[in-house]
Amino acid sequence: MKSKASAPGKIILFGEHFVVYGVKAIVAAINKRVTVTSSKTNERQILVNSVFGEDSFSIDADIDVKSPLKPIVFLAKKMIDEFGHNGGLVIDVESEIPVGVGLGSSSATCVAAAASISNLFAKFSKEDILNLAIEAERTIFADTSGADCTVCTFGGIIEYQKEREFERIKANPRLNLVIINSHKAHSTNTVVNHVRVFKDKHVKEFEKICKMESELIERVKETLKEDGSISSIGGLMKENQRYLKEIGVSNKELDDIIEDANSVTCGSKITGAGGGGCIISVTEFEDSLSKFSDKSYDYFLAKIDFDGLITF
Ligand code: MEV
């Protein structure tokens, strides 16, 4: 028997980093997916095929995986142990989401793998799958706020705050999203650690920026509720980008792309951890996207995904 599941990637529209410290974030799923297919085998090993190639892990050895596959191996081992399976698993991971650029490839993989693997053994609710996915993601990123896995599971646009039930934002703004890949490598873990150092060094300043970010998020929610104009959303993005700059997660390359993208869109900002990765811009009219065609960036257009996790 094969068990297949697919989960969308994500963008953080507003509130990355501050969400780690309890501020609300507005997060959306996008129409790029990771699909995971799993099946049971009789051999005592976990075989994973992914963009990183083919890798196998013995179930009976102590598993200390030092690779991006660690969350998948963790999930496989957890289910095999919990359900007393005598054999192993084969797990295939296919992704439309570029890896390591802040678009949730790791979270979408954790969610799709949690669903695909667990469904081989029992029926789990979406909430259980989300909890499994967050537990798996914590094996490589201990400080995750959980925002990314949550939106990858439930789709749409959500308001997320740590240790609280997430809330769906019912608005469906006609966001024409442009996602620009800076091709500057980054590690979420490293950038999140830099922010922690900044926060510990500049306690009062960080508190002040968190307060401003919280107020900004409330204005974003009002704007979205009122089906506010894309130009208002773009303006709020520019403001969010200023706060991200203040906590040190932007840099010259990203600032230059953002300034240039702002000249042809309503507003742009980093999405995800920053330091590199992707930038999002919003535009009012789809045809203004043609203005991007003479830019040298690697960009693509995205829409909000309202399906979230799908199991087949
Ligand atoms: C990463 O996509 C978003 C961060 O806020 C970290 C997190 O929320 O886990 C930087």
Structural summary, described in words:
The protein is of the alpha+beta class and 312 residues long. It has helices at 70-82, 105-118, 126-137, 147-154, 188-201, 203-225, 230-246, 252-262, and strands at residues 2-14, 25-41, 45-50, 53-58, 88-95, 157-160, 167-168, 176-181, 267-271, 278-283, 298-302, 310-311. Strands 1, 2, 3, 4, 5, 6, 7 and 12 form an 8-stranded mixed β-sheet that branches. A 4-stranded antiparallel β-sheet has the order 9-10-8-11. A hairpin with a 6-residue loop joins strand 9 (267-271) and strand 10. Helix 1 runs parallel beside helix 2 (105-118) and helix 5 (188-201) crosses helix 6. The model has no long low-confidence stretch (mean pLDDT 92). (R)-mevalonate binds next to helix 4 and helix 5. The site of (R)-mevalonate has 14 residues, from helix 4 and helix 5.
Short description:
The protein has 312 residues and is an alpha+beta fold.
Based on secondary structure, the structural category is alpha+beta
Structure summary, number of beta strands: 12
| Average pLDDT over all residues | 92
Provide a count of the helices: 8
Hetero groups in this structure are: (R)-mevalonate
Task: Identify the overall geometry.
Answer: globular
What radius of gyration results from the CA coordinates?
20 Å
Tell me the span between the first and last alpha carbons.
12 Å
Q: Which H/E pattern describes the elements?
A: EEEEHEHHHEEEHHHHEEEE
Q: Unreliable runs, pLDDT <50, ≥5 residues?
A: none
Largest sheet: 8 strands, mixed
Helix content: 25-40%
Strand content: 25-35%
